[in-house]
DNA sequence: GTCTATATACAGATAGAC
DNA sequence: GTCTATCTGTATATAGAC
């Protein structure tokens, strides 16, 4: 069934967002589903195959959320707030971004998966840059929209990681406040 | 000898800054020094002892660099640029911050080490906040100095992690440009 | 302080039966 | 698709000789 595959991805994603890809084993993943590790290998021959699937579906899910924001008749500031809210939801679940976690583990990723990961951040950055670009006159910062998009993405990813260490949401809130203050 | 212990820490730190604590084994660490893994256990009984030592010495080293900046007769903006230069040096070495890496791995850290890690970021944040506080009138942002300090720390940490994925330094540069633009 | 040797556990992955 | 069984490699950690 394709349902099993999706359940495996669900559990694996939650695990990676909590403890990272290195900490996820086919054995514990199988245990949580109620099958054997060899059966997991049927769905994902190698661990890198599972990683690829996780990155791609995370990106697709993220893209859907961005499209939903784009479809709204909101001003730039409100759209950006909705974008930040995606990260706040992740923080509420005591998780970090799947790709932010994998970024820390990128040394042990296959070249293919590193490219997928890079594409995820490029996509997010482009979406923000496009959003900022159409209303460039309402930006209170002396940097390019592309640069500001980079600051926002890396800032939010860093905030998620650091907030977990202290068990707070102060970094994410600080990022949110500053980012929104840069827009009129 | 105490020299061996320091050599072990040097190699271990480089390894963690490249691939993370999980990827570091006593065996490979021992191999690089030219001893056996059981000898590494003599210096650091458990892996968590090694982790503690790494965090503490990294924090002390960082603190020295901050003190050196504090001692200069520079304006706030130049001191902040010097602070950011510490991160640029890390990026130049194709590394990430030791504590930024461990922040991603915090789920598998002992409570003690999580506290040490939290203290590292608090320290850095306080240093920036103090720096900004004395010249609060030269800040172009409508957020508190404490919040701005959080934005700077999490932003730079996130930039180091994301830049490694694409193999660039664009995120760090964007963070630098924006941060410095917030000061008159 | 470092060694050999070993205990124990777990990792990714595969073969072949059902 | 899932299982049992197994191969192979590696991990942390310890005991005890030198």
List keywords for this structure.
homodimer, 184 residues, mainly alpha, Tetracycline Repressor, domain 2, 9 helices, elongated, DNA-binding
Architecture overview:
Two copies of one chain form a homodimer. Chain A has nine helices and no strands. Chain A starts with a helix and ends with a helix. Chain A is mainly alpha-helical and 184 residues long. Chain A is elongated. In chain A, helix 2 packs across helix 3 (37-43), helix 4 runs parallel beside helix 7 and helix 8 (145-166) packs antiparallel against helix 9. The mean pLDDT of chain A is 97. Chain A has one domain (52-181): Tetracycline Repressor, domain 2 (Orthogonal Bundle), CATH 1.10.357.10. At the A-B interface, helix 6, helix 7, helix 8 and helix 9 of A face helix 6, helix 7, helix 8 and helix 9 of B. Chain A binds a DNA duplex (18 and 18 nucleotides) through residues 1, 4, 25-27, 35-39, 41-43, 45-47.
């Amino acid at each position: 069934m394709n349902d099993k595959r999706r359940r495996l991805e669900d559990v694996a994603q939650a695990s990676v967002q909590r403890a990272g890809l290195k900490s996820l084993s086919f054995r514990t993943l199988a245990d949580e589903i109620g099958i054997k590790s060899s059966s997991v290998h049927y769905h994902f021959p190698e661990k890198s195959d599972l990683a690829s699937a996780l990155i791609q579906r995370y990106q697709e899910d993220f893209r859907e959320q961005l499209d939903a924001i784009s479809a709204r008749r909101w001003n730039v500031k409100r759209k950006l707030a909705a974008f930040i809210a995606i990260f706040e939801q992740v923080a509420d679940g005591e998780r970090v971004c799947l790709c932010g976690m994998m970024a820390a583990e990128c040394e042990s990723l296959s070249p293919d998966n590193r490219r997928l990961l890079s594409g995820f951040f490029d996509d997010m950055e482009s979406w923000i840059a496009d959003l900022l670009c159409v209303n460039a006159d309402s930006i209170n910062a002396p940097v390019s929209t592309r640069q500001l998009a980079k600051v926002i993405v890396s800032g939010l990813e860093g905030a998620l990681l650091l907030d977990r260490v202290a068990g707070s949401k102060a970094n994410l809130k600080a990022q949110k406040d500053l980012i929104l203050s840069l827009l009129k």
